[in-house]
Amino acid sequence: MATVQMKVRPEDLSRVPQGNERIPEPGILVIFGASGDLTKRKLLPALFHLRQNNLLPQQFAIVGVARRPLGDEFAQDMKQGVIEFGGADASDPVLADFVNHISYFPLNFDDASHYAALDKELDRIAKEKGIGGDRLFYLATAPEYFTQIVENLGAQGMAQPANGRAAVVIEKPFGHDLDSARELNHRVNAVFHENQVFRIDHYLGKETVQNLLVFRFANGIFEPVWNRNYIDHVQITAAETLGVEGRGPFYEKAGALRDVVQNHVMQLLSLVAAEPPSSFDADSVRREKLKVWRAIPPIPILNTVRGQYGPGMINGQRVIGYRDEERVSPESGTETFAAVRLEIENWRWAGVPFYLRAGKRLKKRATEISIQFKQPPLLIFNRMMSGGGPCSEIQPNLLTIRIQPDEGIALRFGAKVPTSPEMSVCPVYMDFDYSTAFGTSSANGYERLLLDAMLGDQTLFAHRDGVEITWALYTPILEAWAAKKPEVFPNYFAGSWGPECADHLLEKEGRTWRNDLGRKA
Ligand code: BG6
Fold this sequence. Notes:
This protein is an alpha/beta fold. The protein is 35% helix and 20% strand. It binds 6-O-phosphono-beta-D-glucopyranose.
């Protein structure tokens, strides 16, 4: 494959201003549901990296809260998590110091008196460490506890403290349909003002997702062609090779549409399609994203596909089918793959189809956006070619944005094959790879998001209206699917690209899914 890599010149990198990062005010981070996996695998390693990079204030405290009666062993367990999942060195003095900032408080989520005790404990810690009254409550519990915790914090006066700022971070799933999302928003906003609510979608913390805005709006050459006059269609794929990884009971109730499409994929779509915001602040960016979602007409059920994996091979290993996974019904009708075709009815995008798909146990792990441009108006070189062969087809320009893994951007264009006496055209790629160019791998999304939540910056968090609009789009599909059991499940092999009916979704319009995902250089 003919490719050219793109590099960052050291002299350009050296001109990027350093050391002007914002550091949050001293405060306490309280993590509810701290005995769960997320805290140990993602949150604490992310906080440690912030500490390593001097992005946490000198005075800070992390208080884990959960029902289990734990003591000092909590901090030790978190230390192990930072070593195992955050790559920390066990003898690093920064780690030893970091662990000193961690403590644990046992609490029953439904017991109001426990919140009074927690409040006192937080005051004590604040006094001891010289921290003011700022507190960030992170809800990493199962979703059924969200309202209980929020309402108890409210009743205890902890949501609107007299001597500092309070905010709440809420993990997904934010509702399971439109009604439940509205109810949750309503109850959360009865306690916390919307500007105190940080709804996490960890995709928004990924460097490549943030780079989408930079790519579009810090570069003048793409904007003029970023519309229906030049773009044929857009594909967004979120493909995983993993199965449900022991999360059977959760996944049985969720499925791919709820788990990934309604949130992560729709966030990607909004960043591809949004108009330029007037500035990069939370209100402006989130307003433009809302406008995109509002412009999507109801998605006809005919433009949706669901699938479920059966047994198959992933990376040379035999794997079981979804229905054989632990704590999954042997007759399960839950989809592990979902695809939809939608349109955005606005001036920029009218008539351009957006094809979205997400699935588990697919052939390759890859989250990618591909923008396929229209063919040139006249294919003069095709006419001159005689023999055919692999390079004889003129392929349209394609811009691919790799969200993960191998984060980067590639542009495909046609070039003349040097030795050919005829004007044979071969597709070649310009490929920009984040880690090769910058020499670092991109951070786990939680680092950025935790920092922003501590700083009170909501740009990369979901707004209540966005959550409701996206649920409004997908709830009718979920209801239609629930009303009619799928005829043939499982309908794709683990290790394939999903069910055949997903191919028909594009084939009936003369297009195909891009399955050659990944790096080109
Ligand atoms: C989570 C879903 O939100 O995103 C998981 O609940 C999914 O099922 C995960 O595996 C994918 O995240 P990432 O960052 O690995 O693409």
